[in-house]
Design a protein that fits this description.
The complex is a heterodimer of chains A (301) and B (314).
Chain A lengths: L1 H15 L4 H10 L1 H23 L2 H4 L26 H37 L1 H16 L2 H11 L5 H10 L3 H14 L3 H8 L4 H12 L1 H25 L10 H6 L4 H6 L1 H29 L7
Helix pairs in contact in A: 2-15, 3-5, 3-15, 5-6, 5-8, 5-9, 5-12, 10-11, 12-15
Chain B lengths: L1 E16 L4 E17 L3 E6 L5 H9 L6 E6 L2 E2 L7 H7 E4 L13 H12 L4 H14 L16 H13 L5 E5 L7 H18 L2 E6 L2 H7 L2 E6 L2 E7 H6 L4 H8 L9 H17 L1 H4 L9 E3 L5 E3 L4 H4 L1
Parallel strand pairs in B: 3-8, 3-9, 6-7, 7-8
Antiparallel strand pairs in B: 1-2, 1-4, 4-5, 9-10, 10-12, 11-12
Helix pairs in contact in B: 3-4, 3-5, 4-5, 5-6, 9-10
Classes of the chains: A mainly alpha (301), B alpha/beta (314).
Chain lengths: 301, 314
C-alpha cells in the first residue's frame, strides 16, 4: 500500500519535475541535516533582521565608562565589552551586517559571473579568449591586499561600498564554472536547432542555455554565500573592516586577541564565534545538499 | 529548376597546436563537392562516419563556416555576406539526428514548436496555439500534448515534434541529418513514411543524410556516395544500386545483407570478387593519399571518381 503510494507519488514527480528545481527541493527535504540547517538559517535571518529593526545602533555603540566589562546580567543579556557597549546588540547588528554583505556580494558576483561565463562559453573562439584573459587578470591580483587598499582609499565606508569592492574580486570563480558548462551546452543539438530556427543569440543564451544550467547556478551561489558571509568578519578581525562605530562579528572576535578577555571574559567573543560557525556551517550544509542533488549518482533517493 | 546548387564546396577545419595556437594543418572535412537538388525531390548523401556528409548539411544551413565554394539556394548565393539571411533561414530548415538532445528539456512542446513562428511571424497567442495544434495534428500527435515536456515522449514522438518544428514555417528545403538513426527499426519506418507523406502534401525538398543504404534506397531519388570528404559516385538510385562503378560503392552495396538464404552462395562469391578487385586494383580508385579522384561522367546523371586512363584499360 505504502509502496504503491510512493510509486504514484514518484510518478507524479516525474511528470512535474522537469524544471529540476523540484528535484533540488525534494533532495533538500530528504537530507535531514540540510533541512535542519535550512530551518535554522531561516530562523536566524528572520530573528536578526527582525530585532535589528527595533534596535538603535547609535545607542549600542555609545561608550559607557560606568559599565565596562560587565558579565551577562538582566540589563545586558550578553554583558558588555571594554567600552561598556552591549555585546548582544553588537552581535545582532554585526550578524545583520555580515548577512547583508554576504547576500549582496553573492547576488552581484553571481549576476556578473553568470553573464560573463555564459557569453564567453557560448560564443567561444576569440571572444572567449579575450574574456578569459580579462578574468585571468582579475584572478592573479592579490585579493586581500587590494581590498585593504580600497578600504583605506574609500572615505565613506558603508555596507554597499564594502559589498561592491568585494564583488569586484569575487565573480571569477562562478564565471569560470558557468563558462565550462556553457561550452558543453552550446554543442547540444537544441542550441544548434534554435540557431537554424532564426532565434537571436541573446535569446538563446538567456532563454535556452541559462535555464538548463539553473541548478548549477543555484548550487554555486549557495556555496559562495557561505564564504561571503565570513568575508567581512575576517577583514574586521584583521582591523580592515568596519570601524568600531559599526558593530561587526569580526570586531567582537578580535577582542579575544587580548589574553585577559580570552581567558576571563568569554561573553564578549564566544557568541560571535559560535554565530559565525553556525551560519557558515548551515549555509554550507544546504549548499552541499543542493550540489548532491544535481548529481544523480549522489542522490539519496 | 534546381532549388539548391552547391558548387565546389570546401569546409576545412584548422588544426591548432603549440604555444601561440598556430594553425599547423587543416582537416578537409568537405573537399570540393558539387551537386544540385531539384524542387520536390529527395537527394541522399551516403558515407561512412567522418566522411563529411553531415558537415555538408551543416555548412549549407550555416552552422559550419564554409571555407570556399558557392551555395545557391532558390537563386540566391547564401555564402555572400549581403544575402538576406532571414529569408533564407525561413525557407531552409533542419531535422536533427538525435531527438533526445535536439529538444530543449526545459521547454513545453508548445514553446518548442512555436519558436520559429515567434521568430518570423507576428501571431497573436490564439493564432499561435491554433497553428501549433495544426502542426501537431499533421505529425500525428494530439493537441493535449502541447503542455507537456519533451521527456514525456518516446523517441519517435520526439522526432516527429522535431519535424513539426522544422515544417512550421513551410520551408522549401529540409536538411534531414540522419533523422532516423537514433530510433529503433520499427519506429524508423513510421517516421520515414511520415516524412514522405508530408513531402507530397507540402511539396518539400529533402537533403537526406544517412549511412543506411536500405533507407536511402527506399527514400531517395538521387544519391551520392562520399568518402573522406570527397564524392566517390553520384547518380540516380537505379544507377548506383544496379550499376556501381567505383570499388567503394561496390563494396558498400555488396555488404547489404540479403534476406533470401538461397542467395547465400551467390552473395558470398560476389563479395569475394569485390574483395579481390579491391586488393588488386586499389590504386586505380584511390590516389597516393587514399583519397578519391575527380569525378568523370559515365552517363548524363551518373558520375564516378576515376582516374582518366582507367577507362581505357577497361
Amino acid at each position: 500500500m505504502e509502496l504503491d503510494k510512493k510509486e504514484t507519488q514518484s510518478q507524479q514527480n516525474m511528470e512535474h519535475n522537469s524544471t529540476g528545481l523540484r528535484i533540488l527541493w525534494t533532495e533538500l527535504v530528504r537530507d535531514k541535516l540540510a533541512l535542519v540547517s535550512l530551518i535554522m538559517l531561516i530562523v536566524i535571518v528572520v530573528f536578526v533582521y527582525g530585532i535589528s529593526f527595533v534596535m538603535d545602533q547609535d545607542e549600542i555603540v555609545k561608550v559607557d565608562l560606568f559599565s565596562i566589562h560587565e558579565p551577562p546580567s538582566k540589563e545586558f543579556i550578553l554583558g558588555t565589552d571594554y567600552g561598556g557597549r552591549d555585546v548582544f546588540g553588537q552581535l545582532i547588528i554585526g550578524t545583520r551586517n555580515s548577512l547583508s554583505i554576504g547576500f549582496i556580494v553573492t547576488f552581484l558576483s553571481g549576476v556578473i559571473g553568470v553573464i560573463f561565463g555564459l557569453v564567453a562559453g557560448y560564443f567561444g573562439g576569440h571572444i572567449d579568449n579575450i574574456l578569459m584573459r580579462v578574468l585571468d587578470f582579475f584572478q592573479v591580483l592579490p585579493f586581500i591586499m587590494l581590498v585593504i587598499v580600497f578600504v583605506s582609499i574609500v572615505p565613506n565606508y558603508t555596507i554597499v561600498a564594502f559589498s561592491l569592492i568585494f564583488t569586484a574580486f569575487s565573480w571569477m570563480g562562478i564565471a569560470r564554472l558557468i563558462r565550462s558548462k556553457a561550452l558543453q551546452e552550446k554543442e547540444l543539438d537544441y542550441v544548434q536547432a534554435s540557431k537554424t530556427l532564426g532565434t537571436s543569440h541573446f535569446k538563446i543564451i538567456f532563454r535556452e542555455v541559462m535555464p538548463n544550467i539553473s541548478s548549477l547556478i543555484i548550487v554555486t551561489m549557495t556555496l559562495n554565500l557561505a564564504s561571503n558571509i565570513g568575508l567581512e568578519s575576517g577583514l574586521s578581525f584583521l582591523g580592515f573592516g568596519f570601524p568600531e562605530s559599526t558593530p561587526s562579528l569580526g570586531t567582537l572576535l578580535s577582542y579575544a586577541t587580548n589574553p585577559q578577555t580570552l581567558e576571563n571574559r568569554w561573553w564578549i567573543w564566544v557568541p560571535a564565534a559560535v554565530m559565525i560557525l553556525v551560519l557558515m556551517l548551515a549555509v554550507r550544509n544546504v549548499g552541499e545538499a543542493l550540489r548532491r542533488a544535481t548529481d544523480a549518482r549522489q542522490r539519496k533517493g | 529548376m534546381s532549388i539548391l546548387e552547391v558548387t565546389n564546396l570546401k569546409i576545412h577545419f584548422p588544426i591548432k597546436t603549440g604555444l601561440f595556437n598556430r594553425t599547423v594543418n587543416h582537416i578537409k572535412a568537405v573537399d570540393g563537392v558539387s551537386f544540385q537538388i531539384e524542387q520536390g525531390k529527395t537527394y541522399g548523401l551516403v558515407g561512412e562516419s567522418g566522411s563529411g556528409k553531415s558537415t555538408i548539411g551543416r555548412g549549407v544551413i550555416g552552422l559550419e563556416k564554409i571555407t570556399s565554394g558557392k551555395v545557391i539556394f532558390n537563386g540566391v548565393d547564401i555564402t555572400s555576406k549581403n544575402s538576406n539571411r532571414k529569408e533564407i533561414r525561413k525557407n531552409l530548415q533542419m531535422i536533427f539526428q538525435d531527438p533526445y538532445s535536439s529538444l530543449n528539456p526545459r521547454k513545453r512542446i508548445l514553446d518548442i514548436i512555436a519558436e520559429p513562428l515567434r521568430n518570423f511571424e507576428k501571431l497573436t497567442k490564439k493564432e499561435e496555439i491554433k497553428r501549433v495544434e495544426e502542426l501537431l495534428e499533421l505529425v500525428g500527435l494530439s493537441k493535449e500534448n502541447m503542455m507537456k515536456y519533451p521527456h514525456q515522449f518516446s523517441g519517435g514522438q520526439r522526432q516527429r515534434i522535431g519535424v513539426a518544428r522544422a515544417i512550421a514555417l513551410k520551408p522549401k528545403l529540409i536538411i534531414a541529418d540522419e533523422p532516423v538513426s537514433a530510433l529503433d527499426v520499427s519506429v524508423q519506418a513510421q517516421v520515414l513514411n511520415f516524412l514522405q507523406d508530408i513531402q507530397k502534401e507540402l511539396g518539400l525538398t529533402y537533403l537526406f543524410i544517412s549511412h543506411d543504404l536500405g533507407i536511402v534506397k527506399h527514400f531517395c531519388d538521387e544519391i551520392s556516395i562520399m568518402y573522406k570528404g570527397r564524392y566517390v559516385e553520384q547518380g540516380t538510385i537505379e544507377e548506383i544500386f544496379n550499376n556501381p562503378q567505383h570499388i567503394y560503392t561496390k563494396r558498400l552495396i555488396s555488404a547489404i545483407p540479403d534476406m533470401n538464404p538461397s542467395n547465400r552462395d551467390k552473395q558470398f562469391r560476389l563479395r569475394k570478387k569485390v574483395q579481390q578487385e579491391f586488393d588488386q586494383r586499389y590504386h586505380d580508385y584511390f590516389d597516393s593519399e587514399g583519397l578519391a579522384y575527380g569525378l568523370k561522367s559515365v552517363s548524363e546523371t551518373h558520375l564516378v571518381a576515376l582516374q582518366e586512363d582507367v577507362e581505357k584499360v577497361w
